[in-house]
Design a protein that fits this description.
Layout: H1 7-11, E1 17-18, E2 20-25, E3 31-36, E4 39-43, E5 48-54, H2 58-66, E6 68-73, H3 79-87, H4 95-99, E7 103-105, E8 112-114, E9 119-131, E10 134-146, E11 156-159, E12 162-164
Antiparallel strand pairs: 1-11, 2-3, 2-6, 4-5, 5-10, 6-9, 7-8, 9-10, 11-12
């Protein structure tokens, strides 16, 4: 039986949800990572992925200027990195340099892949839509990469700002 409740109580019941990290080159030439949870696949053909970025985030300016990004699906071993990337601003710190995250050059776009991620997708922005306090960017996937170790598992937001793995049931 369903009972009426407020939005925040109801939405908290959706966890776990996947975590992603978008990496975009900023106006200073640095590759700036931002941790996101609001990500979705939007098309099979062509392959497209959408990300949602807060309007006050430093990464928003960079995405609008660069018109391309790498979307990384972090591994469970990257929980501390994901927390760091989501709690610092690229306005104040070079997050990749400060974190020591392992990267490698993207194959097609001007970007970097997160080496320890489960997967990385190079995307070119096809469009954007303002939705209240966030902007959705639709990215066409132009190259895909996976971790050579098939046992590496993805990182999830578990609720209450906790990150971790999910054991299949």
């Amino acid at each position: 039986m369903q009972v009426p409740t407020d939005f925040e109580t109801a939405i908290a019941r959706k966890y776990p949800e996947g975590v992603a990290i978008a990496v975009v080159r900023d106006g200073q030439g640095r590759y700036n990572p931002i941790t996101l949870c609001w990500v979705m696949r939007t098309s099979h053909q062509p392959p497209m992925i959408a990300i949602s970025v807060g309007i006050q985030r430093y990464s928003l300016e960079a995405l609008r200027a660069a018109r391309e990004f790498v979307l990384s699906i972090p591994s469970t071993q990257m929980a501390e990195l994901a927390a760091f990337f989501g709690s610092r601003s690229g306005r104040e710190v070079d997050k990749l340099a400060a974190s020591g995250a392992r990267t490698q050059r993207a194959a097609i776009i001007d970007g970097v892949l997160l080496t320890d991620a489960v997967a990385n997708f190079e995307c070119r922005v096809e469009g954007e839509l303002e939705t209240g306090d966030h902007v959705i960017f639709a990215g066409r996937v132009v190259a895909s990469h996976t971790n050579a170790d098939a046992s590496v598992r993805g990182l999830y937001a578990l609720g209450d700002e906790r990150l971790g793995g999910v054991v299949p049931g």
